[in-house]
Amino acid sequence: MNVDAHGLxxxxxxxxxxxxxxxxxxxxxxxxxxxxxxxxxxxxxxxxWVQSVLAxxxxxxxxxxxxxxxxxxxxxxxxxxxxxxxxxxRLATLRVRLSVSGFLPELVAEAFGVISLQVKRHLGFSLHExxxxxxxxxxxxxxxxxxTGEGKTLTVLLTAATAALAxxxxxxxxxxxxxxxxxxxxxxxIYESLGLSVAWVMAASTPPERQKAYQQNVVHVTARExxxxxxxxxxxxxxxxxxxxxxxxxxxxIVDEADSILIDEACTPLILSKQVxxxxxxxxxxxxxxxxxxxxxxxxxxxxxxxxxxxxEEGSTLLASLTKSLEGPWKLKRYREEQVGVGxxxxxxxxxxxxxxxxxxxxxxxxxxxGRLAVGRxxxxxxxxxxxxxxxxxxxPETETLTETTYQSFFPRYHALAGLSGTxxxxxxxxxxxxxxxxxxxxxxxxxxxxxxxxxxxATADEKWREVVRRAQVEAQAGxxxxxxxDKVADSDALSRAFVAAGVAHQLLxxxxxxxxxxxxxxxxxxxxxxxxITVATHMAGRGTDIHLAPEVLQRGGLHVINTNLNPSRxxxxxLYGRAARQGMPGSCECVLSWEDxxxxxxxxxxxxxxxxxxxxxxxxxxxLAVWLCRGAQQxxxxxxxxxxxxxxxxxxxxARQLALAGRxxxx
Length: 668
Hints:
Blueprint: H1 45-55, H2 62-80, H3 84-101, H4 105-123, H5 129-138, E1 143-145, H6 152-165, E2 170-174, H7 177-193, E3 198-200, H8 207-214, E4 218-222, H9 223-238, E5 252-256, H10 258-264, E6 270-275, H11 281-293, E7 301-305, E8 308-311, H12 313-322, H13 333-348, E9 356-359, E10 362-365, H14 383-390, E11 399-405, H15 407-410, E12 416-421, H16 428-435, E13 439-441, E14 449-452, E15 456-458, H17 461-477, E16 481-486, H18 489-501, E17 507-509, H19 518-527, E18 534-538, H20 551-555, E19 559-563, H21 570-577, E20 586-594, H22 607-619, H23 623-661
Parallel strand pairs: 1-12, 1-13, 2-4, 2-5, 3-4, 5-12, 14-20, 15-20, 16-18, 16-19, 17-18, 19-20
Antiparallel strand pairs: 6-11, 7-8, 9-10
Helix pairs in contact: 1-16, 2-4, 3-4, 4-6, 5-6, 11-13, 11-14, 13-14, 17-18
């Protein structure tokens, strides 16, 4: 029998036995780079959902779950009674059985038993049944909604270690570089006690470091890093440069905060590019901006939304007149309108301190989903350079796209995909249609004690900030900790100024702080649980870290969360509220909005909603009606976002098939 470096049989599994829970790994059958073909599904989201439901695994019954939990308990007792030598022999046997037979319930119970025992020996506490149940479900290619604070990190450990014991390379996707390193470091003793190796990959990791890390059994890494490593591998495979390949294929991924990555960031373009000569690019950018400044909004162009620009007939005629004396490609209508359209986007669609920050002589993108800096990411088609010129900065060299993808097209290439989040259930239909992943909920270990207060909608933004300062001050003076979520860097700065004007001490956490220093972010989060602490954060900053509350805070009612924006999705609201009242602790949350909020105004700009809006703005006596209008605006935005993501996915897959038929190997 052929064996690998661990003495385990090389993978010879086939699709005919995939129902047994076997996941392909590098070996004779699947090669050195296992990779799934993109699933062939209908372009209709509803039909695609039906197709995915029919192909998806059924959820284990309550009886099966109960039986498995009993088997795990017995297995843990058996493992605890073994001598060191017996332990090693039994562990080696288990790895072979998992490698050959896959994730059969009795083998999963055996694996969970030994992992649970090692967690207890190294960390001093036992895993809860909800963690074991969630890990069992994830091994079957599912997404699990698990409430914040229920122990997702160790649930991921159970899933990843079991798959690794079966010889499957596992990628654990975390929120940022700091958490990837932290989790891998903290869990390393447990992995090593099971005979497994673990590593992490960060943005600063060199190619040799990445190659070495991906050779380990489990790798903790951000989704962005592993996606770009795959794009580099794709380019290397197309050029037959096998020495440059760093991954061992896309065998299994476990995605923490799955809804953030698989939904909120699903359409984020992941573009692998190389720098090209500046030549006349700088002059072209400056000319495009000059021409864009000659056009008037409404008369010459319109902004339909989402960064798009549409020239009117008058604008097209004026642009042709302005470029009449120019030579070369400027005489082409499509070229000049595209270049000036990018310039108009740079001038009117992208705002400083909202979409980007100016720092150290460069333009740094702010991720609209996470509130963090998108380190290393640049806008394409000259947009990044034009924004730099607009802000008086030196534009960076132009780039040429080598290959690209999005998370919607990247993650379905994994042979096994699972994940968990505290707020994934609302997106279950889309997740099933796009990724073929069923979503299941695990029950709370302890009943929730969260108090949800009524939403307030005030007339102006200034009134809103004053009310937020007042509410936070009241709760802080009562000895509680307060966390305030904002949607944009500019909003968090405005609120911070309001606190300073009122003489109220507070902490600020947003993209202005260097994300590379995860320890600094962690320090802010740790201080957020002290009595009287007030922390202002962009709505996703600090995600993946726990706010540990001081005993005095718990005695006074726990953490109080204030949401100051109508977020694009109800899931994001729940993500913020989920920081309060974890694990049966006390806590409360509320939402304070204004009719001037950017998220509300577009939805109320016309029709019958505008009439009701004006009435509510004037009298503001019907709080229920105001909340109903806000929820309607939120649902409208959710629907538009879903449609945009699906349209992009359909276009991506059509393009991939066309390029594959044309012989483009970078799409294989």
